[in-house]
Amino acid sequence: MLKKVIEREMREQNIDRTILFDGICTEEEFFLWEQDEEPSLWLMQIYAISQRLGKSVDKYDVVVDEEEFLLALRRNKIALLVRSGKLKEAEEAIEEYKKFLHRIEKIVREEGEASCGRRKENISCGSSAGLLRGEWALHRQFLALERAEIAKRRGVSYPEQLEIILCGLEQTIPKTVWEKHRGRALPSHKWFVTRRLHLMEQFLLSRFIRVYECMGQGRERGEEAFLWYHELASYLLTTAKDRADVTKLHPLLCYRMAENRLHRIFRKNIWWEKDTRGEMITFVEKGVEEVEEFQYAEEYMQTLKFLTEGLTELSLAQKQFPLFRKMEKLRLALLQRIPLFGEHTMEENTWHVLERAWEGLCRVVWEKENNENLAAEAAIAKEMDNETMLSGAGIRMEEGAGRNKEIIKYGGMAHTEHMLQGDIVNKEYIRYKTFLNAKNFDVDYTERSVHNFRELLGRRMQMHDWDVCELGDEIYADPKKSLLPILKGKAKPKPKKRKALQERLGISLKKFDPGFLTLDNAEYKKYARMMRAYNEGRFNEGQKFLDELEEKIDWNYMTNEQLGIYWDALFSWKEGKITEEEKNQEMWKILEYSGVKREKFMEVGADLTGIEWKTLSEIAWNREGEELLFLQQVLKRQEEYLEETGKMGFYPEYYIKILYCLSSMAREAGNLDEAEYYADKGLYAVYEMNLYVQWSAFLFAKFRIVEDRKKREMEEEDFEYIRQAYAVEKLFEKSSFDCKVIEKYLKRYYKQDVLADISEI
Question: Average pLDDT, stretch 634-657?
Answer without folding.
Answer: 94
